[in-house]
Amino acid sequence: MERPLGLAVLILLGCFYLVALFADFISPYTPPDQSLQKTYHPPTALFWENGRLHVQRYELADPDDMVYRKIEGEGAPVRFFARGHDYRLMGLIPTDRHLFLVDEPDRIYLLGSDETGRDNFSRLLYGARISLSIGLVGIAIIMVFGFLAGGLAGYFGGIWDNLTMRFIELVMAVPGLYLLLVLRGTFPDELSPGQTFFLIVIILSFLAWGGTARIIRGMTLSLRNRQFVMAAEVLGQSPLKIVGKHILPNVFSYLVVAASLSIPAFILGEAALSFLGLGIQEPSASWGLMLSQAQDMKVFMLNFWWLLLPGAAIFVTVIAFNVLGDVFRDIVDPKQKFLNR
Amino acid sequence: MSDTTIQNGRGGEPILSVRNLCKYFPIRSKGFIRKQVGVVKAVDQVSFDLMPGETLGLVGESGSGKTTTARAILRAFEPTSGEVFFRTNGRTVDLAQISERALKPLRQQMQMIFQDPFSSLNPRMTVGDIVGEPLMIHGLAEGDVLRRKVEEALVRVGLKAEHRVRYPHAFSGGQRQRIGIARALIMNPALIVADESVSALDVSVQAQVINLLEDIQEEYKLTYIFVAHDLSVIRHICDRVAVMYGGKIVELAETETLFENPRHPYTRALISAIPFPDPDVRLQFDIKGEAADPADLPAGCSFHPRCPHAKQGVCDVRGEPPELRAIRPDHRAACVRVEEIAEEEGIPIR
Q1: Which of B115, B119, B192 to mutate to test the interface with A (most CBs of A within 10 A)?
Q2: Do B124 and A249 touch (CB under 8 A)?
Q3: Does the model's ipTM exceed the 0.85 cut?
Q4: B16-109+223-345 in CATH: which number?
Q5: Which end of chain A is more exposed for a tag (fewer CB within 10 A), N or C?
Q6: For chain B, which residues make up each domain, given as ranges?
Q7: What is the distance, to the nearest Å, from the Cα of residue B59 to the centroid of all Cα atoms in its chain?
Q8: Residues 25-64 of B with CB under 8 A from A
Q9: Which domains does chain A have, with CATH numbers?
């Protein structure tokens, strides 16, 4: 394998997306599922007994500092492919099987629980759905708009070019975070989780499409003056087909790179919005929202480190996409790589 | 300029008649309003006739308007004014006026070979797709027929049929130019405009490509407009030559006449500048200054500031520049002092 790093991050991201896709199968609980007797529960230990995997049972030793102590020798058996809450697998197949569960009232907290005893692991998986898909939906939108605006501006030039570019400059001149807040402020607070999701995507795309459009315009301008475009024009090819057949394929490699490099911006943007309380609302889960809940003083004072795991997830995902983008760029643009060395 | 038929060595109807062709580019100011502040007369009042099977050379320095002329004829640019009469199937159409829609079927008849073999082929398309594109655009062939025609065209230009599936980057400059020629040839056109088609190639490869162009001209009875700045190439391949300077044709004659008995001082200067492969022969190029700037042409004859024969009050008169006039049958020059210069030097106009 020529690029082991690229393959590694590709596999890593593939795993992330698979986990997000099967979040409701893998996670034992739903995101809002509370257990008020077991708040700030540490990650549960697992042990083997009688040939079965068991979950360690804990007792609350100090209610003030939320210190749990293991009850030695006591545990609940983990049941695999057990029946739990109902859901639709991949949104299609109705089922209630889960990868693993323990019988109530015991609970399995692989990554601990939060202030209302919700399972951090389950919330992380459900949050991955939002945090990981927001980038894909977002780049789909900015690529379409960026290509339409930038490609047409670059190909036809003139007044259309002038207007588009000035508008983009206007959008880009406004500081991003404030624009984000203002745009969010113009929409009502009470929205369904799906609506909120799309609202966030659209706001973030609105902030990001300008840069993409600019770069695509520049590339189109330079491609437009290449002789193969004139060759097609002289042959009588229609402008739309020239854009589709001669310009788009030559911009495409850039699109792939730009896409993989701009996904992190969406993930971080969603995290920032949710962190400020303007994004995904309780009781749904997203990585940014989970981080904002971890701002509690208790988390810092009493070392509930597991509540900071969404931050680690964001970190790993963003780094992985950046590495992937770099690897893509090396593949499509070997010269640049050569110059950088 | 006269509208009468411009004489040529052959009888019959011309396939292409260019009359007073102009292509002006506006110069706009910087900023948002982009007011027009001037005009570049890239091609100004160009007229010539082209007979079937003939090769006309367009020659001149960079910025003389030769490429723009070629492109305006094929409507790669909209001409500013003038007429381009193209005869096809017994019908004459003005290419400068008809709509893009009506032009499309005519485009089959006229093809272009480009200068830069590296930018004229789309790097993301296979050679087969590139060569077959004209047929696809005009809906003339598909599937196996298309493949067979592409392979035939590739073989005809000296490539292999199996090169069809490769991408342009796998080929050398000369081979790429052959691909470009195959793309032009596949439509079985009547007129091919070769825009500096060999200037980007090595001399040895140039010779091969020129020979190929000559072979296919004979085989398919093609008419060429051959744009070049290399006079030795022009002399080799062209039947007639038009010398351009500052967007205008300054001399138009049969190749032999032009090279043996050039009348316009600019043509003479150009010919004297042809390098001769003998270190003892000194290069004679007695022209001073820079080529005329088409955005700011001198008054009168645009060559007069550099012309050794220029006469004050004759050549620099504001207003109409010298007309391209017949000084002999088949020989036209745009210089008011042609006869005087001939007399001064004692070289009769032949």
Answers
A1: B119
A2: yes
A3: no
A4: 3.40.50.300
A5: C
A6: 16-109+223-345
A7: 7
A8: 32, 34
A9: 123-340 (1.10.3720.10)
